[in-house]
Amino acid sequence: MRTLRPIFLAAFFFSLHIAIVSYINSSMLGSVLQPKAVSFVFALGSLLSILLIHRSGVFIRRFGNFRSILTLFGLSALLLCGIGVSNGHWTSILLFIPYFALNSLVYYSFDVFIEHLAGQKKVGNTRGLFLTLNNLAWVGMPVLAGALEGHYGFGIVYFFAACAVVSAFLIIAIGERGYRDAPYTQISFSHLFLRLRKRDNVRHAIIINFFLQLFYVWMVIYSPLYLTRVLGFSWEAVGGIFSVMLIPFVLLQYPAGRAADRFSNERILIAGGFLTAGVATLIFSLTGEIGAVAVALILFLTRVGASIIEVANESYFFKTVEDDDTPTIALFRNMVPLAYLVGPMLGIILLGWNMYATLFFILGIIMLGMSLFTIIYSKESATSAPIDLDPVEDIALVDNE
Q: Could you tell me the CATH number of the domain that includes residue 170?
């Protein structure tokens, strides 16, 4: 675990920057654009992210994961400073799209580090600790973001975020300077999909990850707009609500990760998480105008479910892949930008009729449907080893482009 400390610490600071800007991004864009256009900007950033992750394996093989992540940190910090200087003008929109696209690549790079440095026996424990430290960065950040935005505007928030990214850069540059890459597998995405036909456990984990990310997308983009524009809460109140909402990620994910290592089937945890999040989301969509405390408790329950889903599914997935299987890891992480591409497109349709509550009602139904999905496939062993394909077939699948 000693060699993972720089990775965990750098991920904490990178998550710190994500946390302070995530719940003001839509409002910053909304200061220039209409809600439909905000959704379109997130969709563009997601499309760019998908394209970049698709080619990320090429850069990692050529330059190594160490140099790749430092480059990503540097670009992110520069773009954040640019957004801060623009301070809610049209230039910030042009800078936001590539900035948003880079975030998924950074977490993909973190995955490669962890898979290479951590053992397979305690995947749930490692993933639970990694997610707990990342989510610890979120506690209190919405309050700070709301206070900074309320007194100084959007610009100072993005400058603060840039400082956090620079800290992550320095930690990796010093702590992992002797890092040696694994001999990464190189296959085309068309061949990857053919391989997934033989790996049901991996395919199901990727599907679950997509719908979990869709839940996050709709919550991150539309809950601030719903709470401020429809329910009439101030940004200071919204910051407090979101800080309470995020507590389950700190309290539950490490214990849930340890439980995932002990249980023979993580899908029981996943199904229960989807059920909890789905019911709470339905309640959120039907509440109407209620107090901040009640809203905070309801959203708290949605994150109880989501936090369990996240760590159990990551444990399930990373028990079945190796550190050199970068195409499969890239596909798993591509569910984040894919959800940010699909989610806003669906949101544009519903927001055309100003149907915020309906959006969250549909989201609750989707989460309940995923609970049923995981129950159906719960007989599969979550700790099954990766499927070994025929060596001749593996050679045939190599993309020599």
A: 1.20.1250.20
Give the separation between CA 122 and CA 319, rounded to whole angstroms.
9
* The pLDDT of residue 173: 92
What is the per-residue pLDDT for 264? 60
Q: What is the DSSP letter of 264?
A: S
Range of the domain at 253: 2-397
pLDDT confidence band for 112 (50 / 70 / 90): confident
- Give percent above pLDDT 70 in the chain: 82
304 vs 281: CA distance, rounded Å: 11
Q: What is the DSSP letter of 137?
A: T
Q: What is the three-class DSSP state of 304?
A: helix
Report the Cα 185 to chain-centroid distance in Å. Answer: 24
Buried b vs exposed e over 301-334: b needs ≥16 C-beta within 10 Å?
A: bbbbbbbbbbbbbbbbbbbbbebbbbbbbbbbbb
Give me the number of domains the chain comprises: 1
Residue 226: in which H helix or E strand, if any? Answer: none
- The tokens for 72 are 């990503």
pLDDT tens by residue, 202-227: 888 899 999 999 999 889 888 888 88
Q: Rounded to whole angstroms, how far apart are CA atoms 251 and 387? A: 34
User: Distance between CA atoms of 159 and 163, rounded to whole angstroms?
Assistant: 6
Contact between residue 168 and residue 11 where contact means Cβ atoms under 8 Å apart: yes
The pTM for the full model equals: 0.77
Radius of gyration, CA atoms only, the chain: 20
